[in-house]
Amino acid sequence: MSIVFFVLILIIATVFSNALDTKIKFLPRAIIQIMMGLALSFIPNFNHFNLNPEVFMLAIIAPLMFYDGMNTNIVKLKRTLSNTFSLAIGLAVVTIILVGYLGYALLPHIPIALAFALAAIITPTDAVAVLSVTENLDLPNEAMLSLKNESLFNDASGIVMFDLALTAFHTGHFSPVLSIFNYLYVFFGGLIVGWIVGWLFVRLQLLLIETDIDNPNIIVPINFIKPFAIYLLAEMFDTSGILAVVAAGLIQSTQAQSLRLTSTKTQMVSKTTYEIFTNLMNGFVFILLGVSFPTVIYDITNEGRQVSSLGYLILVGIILYIVMIIIRYLWVTLKLANIRIRPADKVLNHFLIAINGIHGTITLSMAFSIPIVLHGKIFPFRNDIIFIAATVIILSLLVPSIILPLMLPAKSYSYSLEDISTYRQKMIEYAIKRVHDADEDPVETQAVIATLRSQQSILQRPKRNATYKILQKCFNLEEKLLQEMVDNGEISVKQQTFYERMSLFQSFQLHQSFIQHFMYRARFYFIKLSHRFKRRIKRVDPLVVTKKFNNARDELAQVENEISPQIFAYLREHLNADNRAEIHWIEEYYRERHRRFQNNTRANEIQEELFINAFQNEYNFIQEQLGMKNISRELASLLYEQVSNDEWVYMQNDSIYA
Prior knowledge:
- The chain has helices spanning about 1-25, 30-40, 55-70, 75-80, 80-105, 110-120, 125-135, 140-170, 175-210, 215-235, 240-255, 255-260, 265-300, 310-335, 345-355, 360-370, 380-405, 415-435, 440-455, 465-485, 495-510, 515-540, 540-575, 580-595, 600-625, 635-655; strands at about 375, 375-380.
- The protein is mainly α.
- Strands 1-2 form a two-stranded antiparallel sheet.
- A hairpin with a 2-residue loop joins strand 1 (about 375) and strand 2 (about 375-380).
- Helix 6 runs parallel beside helix 17.
């Protein structure tokens, strides 16, 4: 139960920090999450928190790296592969060596193997953390692409070097030749394992697609367990589990076109599930840092040293952070990574690549993965290393957050919110006009039009009093139409009375409060049960009762079928900018009432055909506007996505018309 409680609190904290992030623009989301973790550390059950390192790597880091690989543009990665490996392997190894010796010089009381372990921990960069800092800034594409691709592979470099350093510390022996061979085996072995197993998983998914059993209940769980299975398998062969899941993610990316043959529902559910899960996992990492920070400080200050040692550890973290920035800047300036940049922008891009070497999830995970106990004793200097790593993480988040807004313009888009609203409105009106032109059954046409109008995402809520006033006019119109039908001999007075009672009953229900409605429904079910009991006593044939009920409903349906089109026409005539929300709500009310009475296959077929044509016309409208250069490709892509989402929602809810 304590684990369930712990995870639940982390989820709530992550959601709350994401909500705060929408309001607090001057701080990166990661910093907000760290502060949220600090607040959680005051909860008794979170005091002296320790996380199992193996669980952390498997449960959080493996899926995050898999989804990073899956979302990588494989074409761009191939084009920049040499630069990516230069930054991810060459720069990472050089940084670890130089920072390792510097760390040992600054902390001579710790073993040199642990100094290199510290260097390996603080070297990997985090593309997600970079995005959290730069999401509102116009960062050059070349710099952003280099940072993202670098973070895919330098994680593995850091982890492999970290493992070598810990092994040297455990055994007391270090062989440069064996270490190089071990590094190559772990690095490329992980890539090979991930490549093979990832390909097998993709073939399995394609087989499920070919056999038409690719529903979300099968595909989503398979993709969900994929990174965990691949990570564990790679670790069984003593290769890099992290690189294995990255390779598997890249395989998934290369097969994206083939995998799109799966159903729209499966694609939408998969995409949404992955986005939510990765967002939670990234939030967990930084919240855990905040939760753990007070415990680390407490342990350091209670190891028999003076509190002032914390200040020295902070100073060490600052020095190491500055040195890493300098190394990164020199690496790209000396063209050891030849990034294609215009000469006029070289200095700026080189500085951006240097300062955006932001550290996050992997750095924190490796710091936490240091064993708590070694040979039955507390692992030496564990808290010092974690504290310095945390200092570097916070510095790497704060410094760019302060400096970059002064150097870079705010992110600009090729469209505004007003453009989105305007062209979405035009698109829907275009589709509605085509639905009108189809000249199908007016009631079914109005049902489809009302649903299309609901895509406009009107933010205002219908006003209660205004809605009831319009409804009352509709009820009055119904009474007038009923009387005309009686006068013309189309219906009997009995049918008129029955229909008016039904309308009066519904009007009464609409004006009830929640409590009144609940009490009324309870009374209704009580009376219904009483009638059933009386019928059983009197031995009334239930088939006779059902037949009478169906006949009465059919009579009401015939009347309602004549009245509904005129009600919809009345609402359409009186629609304006001031009552749009109220009219749409009333249309929904009458459409649902019509559905309850008119439940037939032909109506469903008409609606389905109208919907399919409407969505196709929306796609055509976007293509026309793009062809005429009225909208940018970015806006077209956004509108395409919105239509696709609306289409998927309809597919999931079309059963309400069945």
